[in-house]
Amino acid sequence: MAQTHNGYFLIADITGYTQYLNESELEHAQETLTALLELLVSRTRPPLVISRLAGDAVISYALGEDFFQGQTFIEKIEDTYVTFRKAIERMVLNNTCRCNACANISNLDLKFFVHYGTFGIQRIRAETGQASGHDELVGSDVNLIHRLLKNRVAESTGIRAYALFTDAAVRQLDNPQWVETLEAHREAYEHLGEVQVWVQDMHPVWESKRETTKVDFPQDRIWARFQVDIDLPRETTWDYLVQPEYRNTLIGSDRMEITNRSKGRVAPGSVYQCYHGDKVVPQTILEWQPFERMIVREMTPIFPDVGGLSEYRLEAIEGGTRLTKTSLPPDGPFMQRTMIRMMLPIFKRMLSGVFETFKQEIEADYRNRRQPGDHGAEIRAEQIRSAAGESLWDEAESGL
């Protein structure tokens, strides 16, 4: 009997092969689709858990309410889409074959379907000859998200590549200002009636990420560097890093809050207001690259007129994530800068201990949040190739 859980469902669905392909072209299409499915599988990391593959789609879930912050989940979806589009661009640039399958690689795109609800998990054991089993999600909410795969979003809105969020999902994400940027849409299904959904157009996300200007951060001027290896995935580490209650540990403030959000989201120009007793010390975000790096102009609590740029960079390593903070020399009044420089050895000892404390805090919190059996399916290369082949052959046969 399946145990009941509350949580998110996420389906990432590749679309775009609409031509009827001959047998040789199907082989080329299978290579392309296999590579893209491998990309989606590799991007599905804890706390997201893969349930199974379904043709050209990856189905995943996350248990419980102790999940990413709403913005981090949104950015995870956006980051996956941008990575997918970059892969398509590389395939097009490196392609020399002119068969229909290869010539139409640029038509491939990606859709996401997100819901929050109740579901059961049934562990399906591998049958003889299969690589592994999988987690089968069951329940009426599971049926709903699968029904939403067939919709009229493109016909009604003109949006071809999108993330579709159910009303339950956006309520759980808890970012009303961000929801106002989405397209409201309704679908109607037999036995379900009308379903309210919200649609995010992913093409503006892609264009925005391509045009992002990076802040100049000269590596030959590094003044101080702090580093710690954390036994958590990169996305999870980022989620902790940007939360005020955990960032407090790194900064040594009494408390912290975020101001100047952009449409409900933390972005360049947003400010971490750090409270040190009766002093309010701002940290202004200059660059925001989710899961990779953040550049902040940090003022000092000792001398409020002295500040400098700091980069927080995350690097995926075996078994976890390396967090590195590098700082450029401070600027401000000469005498105050000089005193800060003289105190650097003391600051280094203090901050080294602070980074270790941060590591211990977030690792302990993550262990406490993890639920038993939160492991998901092991997706192997032969399964991905098989899923891609089945999807393409089914589509080809439907056109006969």
Please explain how this structure is put together.
- With 400 residues, the protein is an alpha+beta fold.
- 38% of the residues lie in helices and 31% in strands.
- The chain is built from 13 helices and 15 strands.
- Strands 1, 2, 3, 4, 5, 6, 7 and 8 form an eight-stranded mixed β-sheet that branches. Strands 9-15-14-13-12-11-10 form a seven-stranded antiparallel β-sheet, with helices on one face.
- Helix 2 crosses helix 8 and helix 10 runs antiparallel to helix 12.
- The longest helix has 26 residues, at 344-369.
- The protein is globular.
- The two termini are 41 Å apart.
- 32% of the residues are buried.
- The mean pLDDT is 87.
Features:
7-stranded antiparallel sheet; 38% helix; 400 residues; alpha+beta; single chain; globular
How would a crystallographer describe the biggest sheet? 8 strands, mixed
Unreliable residue runs? none
DSSP summary, beta strand count: 15
CA-to-CA gap between the ends? 41 Å
Structural class: alpha+beta
How much of the sequence lies in strands comes to: 25-35%
How much helix is in the residues?
A: 25-40%
Task: Please state the overall shape, judged from the principal axes of the Cα atoms.
Answer: globular
Task: Let me know the average pLDDT.
Answer: 87
Order of helices and strands: EHEEHHEEHHEHHEEHEHHEEEEEEHHH
Oligomeric nature of the chains: single chain
Integer-rounded radius of gyration? 24 Å
Number of helices: 13
